[in-house]
Specification:
The chain has 458 residues and is α/β, with parallel strands linked by helices. It contains 17 helices and 16 strands. A seven-stranded mixed sheet has the order 7-13-12-11-10-8-9, with helices on both faces. A three-stranded antiparallel sheet has the order 1-3-2. A two-stranded antiparallel ribbon has the order 4-5.
Length: 458
């Protein structure tokens, strides 16, 4: 779990080991209450001195992340209000941690105004029971209109409102997948999708993304040989690589899915984030694969994650089955948030256009900053989405994630985006924060460089 962590000197070794454990705790890979190995055993496993391990444990105890009791050992803990806190950077200054772990932008302008505008309609809703298992009719109509505008005729009966796109994927797994079934995914892919597959006691079957995007030969072979019960794909500004599957690729993928009769959840949470300035977009995958497609979308990336409203677009028959399966999870999404999103979706497109322009500018700032500060990192500049997928000069992604915390940047190692580990030569850097923050993050990563460059993988 510590990846290629290595001691490289007594001055920083304990701090770096503590940072590596801290990352595992805060990311949930070492949940609170996890028993930790004795100091002597860990020192032997890592080939370091026991003194270094003891010093790292002291740092973690001071942070409240490790609790020890004589005779009972040590275990992880989660201090109240833990969020990373401040860190000491160069010059001894106390700085806030820059969170690069989440690729989510702040709210677009107009959310508060939309909330105020729907208050009269909320008053009308208060006389009823407030349960809409399929979603508020007005919101389903707005979502259906957006699919129709994209070239996929859709009726409100083909839309199910959810508590985010991830909620829709979880419902699809509940309905379509059983324990031990295979689910085809891309590699790399959205980490929470991998966790959802595992939570359903299913087996993720990855198909590797290439330097040019999707390996459609590999997809076709996996559909034939592994016979997955479900697929999960991100064909619009793929997370984390930023690729978008073109029209010809969608036609080929749709044909392969139809031959195999494999349902597919298509994550469209970033479909609105085209940063090319209005180039023609390929049609939704459902236009090529028909009723096999369950398209999930969300307001999280386009408007604001705090709304926690998403949707599934599927055949009316499948939507009815999802509604029935939903009753074991919840009884519908919050009415007020649905009213707010319906108001936002009905507004002029200027706010979304401004969001795309801002993201494009922030992308370019991060591109320049990384090229200047980390010149041996390579990446493809994406046409959309929210992040750069950086290739590193050595397999040190987990090492960078651990060391960077001591310099005030929290990043997610490449292994998080893989079903079975690996991807240590890759790191995701989101460009969802203000330009000055992006430049400072790149500067801090460069400051950490002497620490992680000394790693020599075995």
């Amino acid at each position: 779990m510590l990846g290629t962590w290595r001691r490289h000197g007594s001055r920083h070794g304990a701090a770096d080991l503590a940072a590596g454990i801290r990352m595992l705790v805060l990311d949930g890979r070492l949940p609170a209450g996890t028993g930790l190995p004795p100091e002597r055993e860990l020192a032997t496993a890592l080939d370091v001195s026991r003194t270094m391990v003891a010093s790292a444990w002291d740092r973690l105890r001071a942070d409240g992340l490790v609790v020890s009791r004589r005779g009972a050992g040590s275990w992880t803990a989660m201090p109240r209000g833990a969020s990373g806190g401040g860190v000491i950077t160069d010059g001894g200054r106390l700085s806030e941690v820059i969170d690069f772990a989440r690729a989510v932008p702040a709210s677009i302008p107009g959310v508060a105004a939309a909330a105020e505008a729907v208050l009269p309609r909320l008053a009308g809703e208060l006389t009823g029971h407030g349960y809409y298992e399929q979603g508020l009719p007005e919101l389903r109509e707005r979502i259906a209109e957006r699919y129709t505008e994209r070239g996929l005729p859709t009726s409100p009966d083909e839309v199910l409102v959810t508590n985010g796109a991830h909620h829709g994927f979880a419902m699809a797994l509940r309905l379509l997948v059983g324990p031990g079934d295979r689910v085809m995914i891309e590699q790399p892919t959205y980490p929470n999708a991998i966790e959802a597959v595992r939570a359903a006691h299913a087996i993720p079957v990855p198909v590797v993304m290439t330097d040019g995007g999707w390996d459609l030969d590999g997809v076709e072979a996996t559909l034939r040989q592994a016979a997955p019960r479900l697929a999960y794909l991100v064909v619009d500004f793929h997370n984390p690589t930023g690729f978008r599957l073109d029209e010809a690729g969608r036609a080929r993928l749709g044909a392969a899915l139809r031959r195999a009769r494999t349902p597919v959840v298509v994550d469209e949470t970033q479909v609105e984030l085209d940063l090319t300035g209005g180039s023609p977009a390929p049609g939704p995958l459902a236009a090529f694969a028909g009723d096999l497609v369950l398209a999930t979308g969300s307001a999280g990336k386009s408007h604001w994650g705090g709304l926690r409203i998403g949707w599934v677009r599927a055949s009316a028959e499948l939507v009815n089955r999802l509604v029935a399966a939903r009753r074991g999870l919840d009884l519908g999404s919050p009415v007020f948030e649905q009213l707010v999103l319906a108001e936002l979706l009905g507004a002029p497109p200027a706010a979304l256009a401004d969001r795309r322009a801002l993201l494009a500018a922030q992308r370019d700032v991060l591109v320049d900053a990384v090229r200047a500060q980390c010149p041996d990192w390579s990446f493809r500049v994406p046409d959309g989405g929210l992040s750069l997928w950086c290739r590193l000069p050595a397999p040190v992604s987990t090492r960078i994630a651990a060391v960077a915390q001591n310099f005030g940047v929290r990043v997610v190692p490449g292994s998080f985006f893989a079903a079975h580990g690996g991807l240590e030569r890759w790191l995701r850097l989101p460009y969802t924060q203000p330009a000055d923050t992006l430049r400072e993050a790149a500067r801090r990563l460069a400051l950490a460089r002497p620490r992680w460059l000394k790693v020599v993988p075995r």
